[in-house]
Amino acid sequence: MEIFATIAQALTEMTSSAWFFFSHGAWVIFAILVYVMLRKLYMDRINGAFIMSNTPVFLHIKIEKENLQSNLAVEQIFANLHAMHGNFTWAEIHLEGKIQLWISFEIVSLGGKISYIVRTPEKLINLVQSVFYAQYPNAEISQVEDYMKNLEHWDQHHATWDLWGTEFKMTRDYAYPIKTWREFEHPSAEVPILDPLTSMLEALSRAEAHELLAMQIIIRPVADNEWVPHVQEVVKKLKEEPVPHKATWVDRIFPFVNWGSEKTLFEVIAGGEGGHGGHDDKKPDQPKVLRMSEGERNILKAIETKITKPGYQVKIKYLYIAPKDKFDGSKKSAMIGAMRGFGGIVTNNLKPDVSGTWTNYNYKLFKALEKPFVDFVNVERKHLFLKGYVRRSMWIGANPMVMNTEELATLYHFPLATIGTAPVERIDVKKGQPPANLPIMS
């Protein structure tokens, strides 16, 4: 009985202490937490309703076999698509749940037959068609069903097929661009233009009749003020120029908090820039730009060039599906290897997100002991990846990167007629307008 009395007394004291703190201001923290949680649930609900109200449409894009348009045409397509970016009012955001919509550009190989698919909200279909026809007047654009319609759900016990997938992420800050299509042009060479997608299309063409290989690029336009200032800060750091401190609400309330990180105590008291009251007989060094090597200048030029073109939030995904008894794990190596061509020492690189979205999880120390956990993680990763892929989700999986139109045109474009390419679906006969003097029978 003494034990129960002790427990009861302890609970009473804990309750009294909790009530004391709650009644003396802790309720404010509790109320804020409840508000934040309810607001998050509310915004998720109305945003989800807005997304569901925009019916997705799948467009199959075919161009002529004799395609002589350079990748500049596709870059212009992405530049014109940036018009889908909208500026919403407070009421539209918080009452109607409106958010910026996105489009998915996909290259799909079904049994080695490669197709270019665009998944767009129905309200944007006219914009998408017009920007493609503007650059490819003879293109054929037709509505098709989602090729993932019958592959939305996977059951590890009853499904006859298996899958592998991953997302890609940049190895450096998104301020650093990847190697773009302009760097694949060599005017003095025997073959002046090298298609950066050749390796990718070749890997996709290797799909057997029972296999599906696909690359998905989801893009969502962002305003310049959402990403350009960060890139400019990176440029200033490379030039070793002072970066202005961003004042937060903590800085405004407690302005003395950052004194120690920005100036020494002597500098704060003296009001000078250095320990000598601002007087330094030593001559200042040359600006960092003048002391940069050729490679450093090239990096700086690439970063500064990136912000001259519209930007998008981007997610890149690879998917491989095949029957369980014919699943070929080596197919993923060719697809991953194709992405290495877009990186370099000066530029950024794209690598698979092994620690996050890669659907094959490996044991750490003891294979037999860890097998139940490894199998569980593999199944969960496959379910999550497939869900994100089918929904073309911007939130499921890795965080999106930021790329400009030139980078996107490098990753997604149509092969040139002058270059030997894989079997991409194209138009056999060129279409044209009938001659003006064509006789008409009455």
Relevant terms:
disordered C terminus; 14 helices; 9 strands; alpha+beta; 442 residues; 40% helix; 9-stranded antiparallel sheet; Vanillyl-alcohol Oxidase, Chain A, domain 3
Give the terminus-to-terminus CA distance. 111 Å
Low-pLDDT runs of 5+ residues are 272-279, 438-442
Mean pLDDT across all residues, rounded? 83
The CATH topology of the domain at 56-222 and 308-411 is Vanillyl-alcohol Oxidase, Chain A, domain 3
**H/E series:** HEHHEEHEEHEHHHHHHEHEHEH
Overall outline = globular
Q: Helix count, per DSSP?
A: 14
What's the total count of β strands? 9
Structural class: alpha+beta
Radius of gyration: 28 Å
Major beta-sheet overview = 9 strands, antiparallel
- Give the CATH architecture of the domain at 56-222 and 308-411: 3-Layer(aba) Sandwich
Instruction: Name the beta content range.
Output: 15-25%
CATH class of the domain at 56-222 and 308-411: Alpha Beta
Helix content: 25-40%
